[in-house]
Amino acid sequence: MQPRPPRPRPVRTWFRRHGRDFAWLAPLLVLAGFVHSSGMTRAPAFTEVEGETITRIADGAWSLPADFGLAQLAAWIGPAGALDRAAHAVAAGREALLVVQLLGVVLLWMLARRLDVARPAAAVAVAVFAVSPLALYLHRMVLVENVAVLWMLLGFALATARRRQPVAFPAAGVAVLLAVLTQATFVVVAPFVVWTMWQQVTARAWRLALGGLAAATAAGGYVYVLFSLAGPVRGGEAPEHLWSLDPVLVAVGPAAAAAALLFRPLRPAAGALLTLALLIVVPGGSAAVALPIAAVPLAALLVPAAAHRLIVRLLTVRGRPEAMPLAIMTATAAAALIVVVTATWPGELRPLLRGDAVAPVAQAERWIEANVPRDARLVVDHTMREDLLRSGFSAGGVLPFTSFPVATAPGDLLPLGAAVPARRTFEPRPPGWTHYDYIVSTPALRADDTDRPDVRTALVESTVVAEFGSGGGRVEIRAIHPLGRAVAEAVAAGDRRTVRYATGQLLRNDALTFNAAARAVASAGRVDPRLVIVLGKLSGTHQLDVSLPALPGEQDGVRRRLVLGGLPTEDEAARLALWLLGQPPPFTPSQVDTDGTTVVATYSLAAPRGLLPDPP
Hints:
This protein has 616 residues and is α/β, with parallel strands linked by helices. Helix content is 58%, strand content 7%. The longest helix is centred in the middle third of the chain and has 32 residues. This is Glycosyltransferase RgtA/B/C/D-like domain-containing protein.
C-alpha cells in the first residue's frame, strides 16, 4: 500500500515564506493607519478640488472610462455609506483615502523587497511614506491622484519580476494603463516602468521591443505633460509650499535619487523621481498636484534604499585606505539627517495631527443652518455645498462659485459684413451676483486664482454678518447688497442713529440695569430694534439685569440675543419666557431658554426696518 502524499497546507507554506515580512509589515500598517486617521477629517483644510470630487461622486455625475478615478473612490464611499456617517461630505472621501493609504503601504513594501532592499531599510521607506509631513498632507486629500499612485507602485513591483515574466510584464503594463486612466499625468512614469522591465530581461529581442515602447511612451507622454503644464494649473502646489511643508524630504529625496543612479536596480525609480522633480521646479509657478503625489513614494523608497546600498558598498571596501573617509562622511550625513528630521517634522506634523483647520467651516455651516432661511440664495464653494444640501437647502439656491463665468479678454473685431458664428450648444449660466443673498468666503474660494467678475463684485459689494476663524483660514458669511455696499452702509448708519437715540432712553431707565459691555453696545447703537421695543415694554413691569452677548461669529455685528436676569423666582422666569414667546411677529423670538432665574431670548437674523421712530 502506497503512502498517502502529504496534504497541501497553503497557509503554513505562505507563512513559512513570508512570515518575516509580515512580522515587519503588520506594525507598519498599524502605524500608518494611526497617523493617517488621527485628525484626517480636520487637517488639512478642505480644498475646492476635493469638494468638486465629492459632489460628483454624491451626484453620480461620472462615467467610465473618462472618470475612472472617481469610480474607484465611489466604489468605497457608496457601498460603505461614508456620506451617511461623516459630518462633512469631504470627510467621507477622506475615509476612503485611509484605505488607499494602507494599500499603498503594502505595495511600497512589496516594491522595496523586490528591489532587494533590506527589511530595516524597507521599514524606513514605509515609515517615511506614512509619517512625512508632506506625504501626510497630500495623502489625506480626496484626489484621484492618490489612487493612481497605487497603480504606479503596482506597475513598478510587477516590472521587477524575475519569474513568470510573460504574465507579470503585461500585468505591469495594465497597471500603468490604469494609473494613466485614473490621472493622465502619470504617463510620466510609464517609460521608467518599461525601463524596469528592460533590466529584468537579457534577450536582445525583448530589450529592443521594450526600448521602443519606452521611447514611444516617453515621447507621447512628455508632450502631453508639457502642454498641460503650459497653462494655468488648477489645484496645483507651488514648490515653495512643498518646501515649507517638508524641507527634509524635498531636499533629501532628489539627492538620494542622484546617489541611487550608481546602483542598477534603483536607476529607473531614481530617473522617475528626478524627472518629476524637474517638472515641478523648472516650469515655475504651481505644478500639477499629481507630480508631488507621484514623487513622494519614490522619494520615501530611494532615501533608505540608496543609504542601504551605500552602506553595503562601504562594507566591501573595509580595510582599504578610502574606507575611513567614506565611513566618516556616511556617519556625519546620517547624524545630520536625524537631527534635521527631529527638528522639523514634529513642528510640521503637529497641525496635521492636532490642528483643526476645518473648524471654521463647521461653525459657519451650523450658523447658516440656524440663521439663514432655507429658501435663501447662497454662493458657496463645493466643500460646503453638499453639506448644505443635506441640511435642507435647495440645489437651485446653493450655487458653487465656479459656476460663474470667468473674465474673457475682448477678441479681435470681425470685419464688416462677416457672418457672426452661431453658438452650437446652449450653455446655461447662473443669474448675476445681485440675484443672491449671501456669499460665503472660505479659504477654498479665496484660493481660486481665476478671475470671475461676479464673484469679485459680490465680495466687494457685501458686508460680513458672521465670521469664524482668523487669518487665512477664516470663513466669512457676507450679505450681498444689490444696490451696493455704500448704500447699505449709509442705511445701516441711519439705523444705528435711530437705535442709539432709543437705547439712550433705556439706559436712563432705573428699572433696567445694563452691565458694562451691554451699555457700550447700546451706546453704539448696535442693538436689534426688536430688543429695544421689548425692553421698553418690560421696563414698566419688571426690575431686570440686562446683558447683550454676541452670538458665535457675530462679535462685531448687531446684537440680537437678550439675557434677562434679576428675576425673583424660577416661576417668574418661566412666565417671562412664555410672555416673550407670545409676542406677535416680528417680536417673537426664534428661541427662548431659561436657566434658573435667567431668561435668554434669541431673535432671527434680519429685523424689519421702520420699527423705531426717527429721532428728533
